[in-house]
Amino acid sequence: MTQVSVIKNLTEVRAMIKRHKMNDYIFSVIGIIALMIGLLTLLTLFIDLIYDGSARFNLQFLSDFPSRRAEHAGLLSAWVGSTLVMMITFLTAVPMGVAAGLYLEEYAPKNWFSDLIEINVSNLAGVPSIVYGLLALGLFVYGLGLGQSILTAGLTLGLLILPIVIVSTRESIRAIPVAIREAAYAVGATKWQVVHDHVLKYSYGGVLTGVIIGMARALGETAPIITIGALTFIAFLPPSPITAEPPYLNFEWLSSGFTVMPIQMFNWLSRPDHAFHVNAAATGAIIIVVTLLMNGYAIRLRYKIRESIKW
Predict the structure, then answer these.
(1) What's residue 37's pLDDT?
(2) What stretches in the chain show pLDDT beneath 70?
(3) Where does the ABC transmembrane type-1 domain lie (predicted)?
(4) How far is CA 261 from CA 221, 243, 290, in A?
(5) Which of 7, 128, 205, 216 has its CA 20 to 30 A from that of 307?
(6) Superfamily grouping for domain 58-310
């Protein structure tokens, strides 16, 4: 190869590298602009909600029942209902979702049936929430006779976030290097010891992140809850899950009527009185704050787990 050819090739390589760097720079700028548009839009809406609902940011708003008089209307039954529904959602979706993701990734044979399950789980993660509401209406409300209860709402939202938990669990497990599994097998560990002591330990942060993000989505869902017949006005609390007498547990609250914060917000927005719109704005701001706190906690938890693993 002549010296002229070498110089020509070097020139072409430098031009290609320069072109690729320019493409990377342009893509980074476009990505930052898109990110800033989304963040600024959310920040603008959030500030607007805070400005409109600032008059109701007090303990009385959280401790009063809904009322036909806007200045006395509160969010007590709504946030209590949301808390109880989230408890059922967590207990039904998280253990099943993590176990299913673990089985599909570590134990299930790699064949057409596993591929079919994987395709269906991925598709279910993108199904509109109203479809889950219609499914729950036919299965839980009429089929199993559970009625329009907290248990029905929790199971409905559990079905909604179940694919999210499964997918996040599988992705977290896939991120674990194969060398960790091979090293454990090399010292005589069994399959379960490898999965329990190593795979789950190192994927714990990613799994919890997916769970918290799924729970944050369930907290703000309205369509499936309305479909199964949640109440829009409720001036009482469900029975307490804990009692002062043995056996100290009460399950009557599972069949109680309920409402949640998004539905209470929707109810106030549907009224013509502007004072109710102020209540709705305050509720929307509270929902956003809780969602941001949950997502922030997920990020912090993942960071702490990764740091503890390094040590």
Answers:
(1) 92
(2) 1-8, 308-311
(3) 79-298
(4) 9, 25, 11
(5) 216
(6) MetI-like (1.10.3720.10)
